[in-house]
Write a structure and sequence with these properties.
CATH class: Mainly Beta
CATH architecture: Beta Barrel
Distance between the termini: 26 Å
Radius of gyration: 18 Å
Helix content: under 10%
CATH topology: AttH-like fold
Order of helices and strands: EEEEEEEEEEHEEEEE
């Protein structure tokens, strides 16, 4: 049976087990990953904890997404860009040894996600009423280049879905997805510039933290759109 969580608290108990299991409409749990206890030698635990912030933007012309991820032993950055008219999809990523220069916040409700080196700069910033995405990747798609400055409207109390899933006794997956965030700003991709209209452009966040087995996989899908009368679904 699915259990809806209503009480705030810590994600993990002091012994590393999940304090609550289920789903919630708001991010109620503090992501205290420092309490994880899945290895007897705690020195190695940080190499297995996974964290990421993934933002996606859907516009009438295309799809854009950017991710900052900390895999424990390395960092991973990637950007997607798709043109709906031509069907062209391009993806590029960077693996960052020892996750150098990667910054991710403790929780999904506040803080900054950041990475910058000589090749690329990604910044995700959370404010009280909105989220700001800044991406600069000059050599994306063999020098075509991509740059985005996007603001997603996300007022306090905006409903989302958070899930807490156990994996064995002391492994887990904590995730939050926020959909239907009105998007405004610009995306510069090569010679084209797209100006985002919040009445037709929508953003989403996939925020994940957890520890799972060496061999794991999952399938997921997320869809956001607009009805003819302008309401989002």
């Amino acid at each position: 049976m699915q259990i809806e969580l209503n009480q705030p608290g810590a994600l993990l108990k002091t012994d590393g087990r999940l304090a609550q299991i289920g789903w919630s409409r708001q991010p109620l749990l503090d992501c205290n990953l420092e309490a994880a206890r899945f290895y007897s030698m705690r020195l190695f635990q940080s190499l297995r904890i996974k964290r990421w912030d993934y933002y996606a933007i859907i516009t009438p012309r295309g799809f854009f997404s950017a991710t900052i991820a900390d895999l424990g032993y390395a960092g991973n950055l990637f950007v997607y860009a798709m043109d709906f008219e031509t069907g062209e999809l391009h993806e590029e990523g960077l693996v960052i040894p020892l996750r150098k220069n990667i910054q991710l916040p403790r929780n999904s409700t506040e803080g900054d996600s950041h990475f910058k080196n000589k090749k690329v700069s990604l910044d995700f910033h959370v404010e009280t009423t909105h989220r700001k995405i800044s991406v600069t990747w000059p050599n994306f798609h063999s020098g075509r280049g991509i740059q985005a400055e996007i603001i997603l409207d996300c007022p306090p109390g905006y409903e989302s879905m958070a899930i807490v899933i156990p994996i064995g006794k002391k492994r887990f997956y904590y995730n939050r997805k926020i959909n239907c965030l009105p998007a405004e700003g610009t995306i510069h991709y090569g010679d084209s510039i797209e100006i985002l209209d919040p009445t037709t452009c929508s953003g989403s966040l996939d925020w994940g933290r957890g520890v799972w087995e060496y061999q794991s996989y999952w399938n997921w899908a997320s869809s956001s759109g607009f009805l003819p009368d302008g309401r989002s679904v």
